[in-house]
Amino acid sequence: MKTLGPTAKIEPLDGDTFQFNCQPGLRCFGDCCSDLTLMLMPYDALRLRQALALGSEVFLERYTETVRDSDEGVPRVQVKMGDDAKKRCPFLANDGCTVYEDRPGACRIFPLGRAAAAASAPGMEGGLGGGRLAPSGVREQFFLVREEVCHGWEEPREWSIDPWLDDQGMRSYLAQNDRWLSIFTRLPALEKDRHAEQRFSMFRTAAYHLDRFRDLVTGDAFSQRFELGDEQLARIREDDEALLDFAVDWLAFSLFGDLTITPKSV
């Protein structure tokens, strides 16, 4: 998850406690929601478009842009900031966030940031300072994101990590994002593939263009090639989260050759 403003500074989290509170009435309220690099994970995009009652194509066209990561060349979907002088988030109103109940995970977790890696990743062993084991089985490490405009640090309320995650409704977001970890961490390797653009297009379709992906996997051609039980197919047709879960398996199979779905015998 990545949400950074132009004045953001990343700092280590000393222990697992921090002092912070954000609420209406602070003189900075809403100031942190402008000129952001706000990357959307697939679950972020799903929750936002459901909240807005929009199809995936309309939502992506209206509110997002796809940019190439300058270091890895991987396409990243991020919120399209406004064209006003402050480059305000399109979901920000005078009285706060208009999609607050379904705001992206990176907005929820602020002022914390989180890094996650496979439990066996180098440097993630040990205690909290070197990463702790998350319920999903990955190693997670937390840090502080300080914005110059933010005065929430001055509020006398102390939090520790887990109560903050619970209070901000982060658990479902972390679980979904950790499921996508194996896909996102392997995407940079595709840049060297001669079919990179085709593979990146497959990734964008399955991860973000869910209406288009649903049409693909519920079509006759797909069912003739792959084993899909009636119960699973019914969930994919009716439940966006079930479809997003299947997208992880499909991408692991189609992009990286993992045996996560079963082709039919010819």
Describe the overall structure:
This protein is an alpha+beta fold and about 270 residues long. It has 2 domains: about 5-35 and about 80-180, no CATH class; about 190-255, no CATH class. Helix content is about 40%, strand content about 15%. It has 12 helices and 12 strands. It has helices at about 40-50, 55-65, 105-110, 160-165, 170-180, 180-185, 185-190, 195-205, 210-215, 220-225, 230-240, 240-255, and strands at about 5, 10, 15-20, 35-40, 65-70, 75-80, 90-95, 95, 110-115, 130-135, 140-145, 160. The strands form 5 sheets. Strands 2, 9, 10 and 11 form a 4-stranded antiparallel beta sheet that branches. The chain has a two-stranded antiparallel ribbon with strand order 1-4. Strand 7 (about 90-95) and strand 8 form a beta hairpin. Helix 8 (about 195-205) runs antiparallel to helix 12 (about 240-255) and helix 11 crosses helix 12. The longest helix has 17 residues, at about 240-255. It is globular and about 65 Å long. It starts with a strand and ends in a 10-residue tail after the last helix. Residues about 125-130 have low confidence and may be disordered.
Question: What's the topology here?
Answer:
Elements: E1 3-4, E2 9-12, E3 17-19, E4 37-38, H1 42-52, H2 56-63, E5 64-68, E6 75-79, E7 92-93, E8 96-97, H3 105-109, E9 112-117, E10 132-133, E11 139-146, E12 158-160, H4 161-167, H5 171-179, H6 181-184, H7 187-190, H8 196-207, H9 210-217, H10 220-225, H11 230-238, H12 240-256
Antiparallel strand pairs: 1-4, 2-11, 3-12, 5-6, 7-8, 9-11, 10-11
